Amino acid sequence: MKRADHHPSRRRFLDVSGAMVAAGLTAGCTSDSAQPGRHAPSAAATPKPVAATGRHQAGITLPQQAQANLLAVVADLGADVAPGPLLAELGQAIRTLVAGTDPRLMGLPPGDLTVTVGVGPRLVRAAGASLPGTADLPRFSRERIAPRARGGDLLIQICAGDALLLPVVAAALLDQAGDRVRERWRQSGRRGTNVSVGKGLTAPRNPLGFIDGIVGPHTTAEQQRDLWLAGPPAVAGGTLAVLRRMELDLPRFAALSVAEQEAVFGRRRASGVPLSGGTADSGPMLGAKTPDGRYLVPADAHVRRAHATVVGVGLMLRRSYSTDDPAPGLLFISFQNDLRTFTATLTHMDTSDALLPFTTTTASATFLILPGFDRQRPLGSQLFG
Ligand code: HEM
């Protein structure tokens, strides 16, 4: 279970890193004031920092426009590891990493870095059998998932505008955890250029060329209703995440005409406008028909099969990233306060969704995203304190 290589004790590591912070700050002051010609080069456009602390963790609704790069690391905890102290330490490390004061960043500017932490069903069950987040995802069709790419105890979702930060931040957090965790699977992804879809919202295109992430709980009221967990107190302010790595059959999709591709989704490829008309953000009119009685949004179109009202569930916040390794596809990520929002939607898609035959799912997991944290209320303290 445990890694064989030697790790310095955490106490010693913290002492050393504290000393390095102090040394780094002093050195920075000296060079800034005494050697004006040696200033660090200024970044072209420094992205706005995103606070790590607050009622909710960052990396879900903030930043409003998701960063271009993601690395998701999924790990297991050793059988005798207490989650409380580990999560509190990770939260503390996240605060220093995001603040840019952690020596393990090696001076890299954190920019809009966010780190979002979730715990898997096994850990949630240990904390309370009736809590949200205790259920594993069921099996669905079109899965080819290796045992190690299914489930996991700990999710560390790292997002940043600067792709260089991702492995550095992952290494820092895994080193902090030391031999208490063992990595299970990881996936990196990126988002394409953002396209404006109205109401001040933007969404990127996915590898099939379609704008992805239009419909979701975007208003505060929708987020209170469908995204954030209202209770019990141990999970209030958290949410439930689903991660599904889906390979896409790009050559077969590319062989379709544009009209056929649009029929698969039920939206225009160029603009994201539903095939029933209107604007990208107006939502598909599912009852609208052609003069000869055919649905404008076909019966098996993805936006019909996945439509919240048709399925009878709340809205999910989709925040997916495109992947190219191990294969071209999508790391589908959704956040919702009821796992049924995801499971009922995919079950409804499984019966007949024109998109599914182009997909093969190769990794799958769900996590309870812990409530937000700060200095007084360490990460994970409500659940494992
Ligand atoms: C590789 C797989 C997938 C791709 C490429 C994909 C892509 C898209 C696109 C382009 C849209 C239309 C624009 C938008 O509202 O964002 C959409 C809508 C949607 N997708 Fe997916 N999707 C995939 C898988 C899934 C899965 C697995 C689920 C959940 C089980 C899902 C749930 C939804 C929902 C709820 C909508 C909004 C439907 C509406 O109300 O109009 N998608 N998806």
Topology:
Layout: H1 10-34, E1 69-77, H2 83-99, E2 114-119, H3 121-127, E3 154-160, H4 165-177, E4 181-190, E5 194-198, E6 201-204, H5 220-227, E7 239-248, H6 250-254, H7 258-265, H8 302-305, H9 308-311, E8 317-318, E9 321-323, E10 329-336, H10 339-351, E11 359-369, H11 381-384
Antiparallel strand pairs: 1-3, 1-4, 2-3, 2-11, 5-6, 7-10, 7-11, 8-10, 9-10
Helix pairs in contact: 2-4
Bound molecules: protoporphyrin IX containing FE (HEM).
Key terms:
globular; 28% helix; nine-stranded antiparallel β-sheet; binds protoporphyrin IX containing FE; disordered N terminus; 385 residues; two-stranded antiparallel ribbon; alpha+beta
Oligomeric state of the chains present here: single chain
| Percent range for β-strand residues | 15-25%
Structure summary, number of beta strands: 11
Question: What is the count of helical runs?
Answer: 11
What's the main sheet like? Answer: 9 strands, antiparallel
What is the radius of gyration?
A: 22 Å
Q: Please write the string of helix (H) and strand (E) elements.
A: HEHEHEHEEEHEHHHHEEEHEH
Q: pLDDT under 50 segments (min length 5)?
A: 1-37
Bound molecules: protoporphyrin IX containing FE
In the residues, how many domains can be counted?
1
Q: Please report the distance between the alpha carbons of the first and last residues.
A: 25 Å
The shape is: globular
Structural class: alpha+beta
Average pLDDT across residues?
A: 90
Residue share in helices? 25-40%
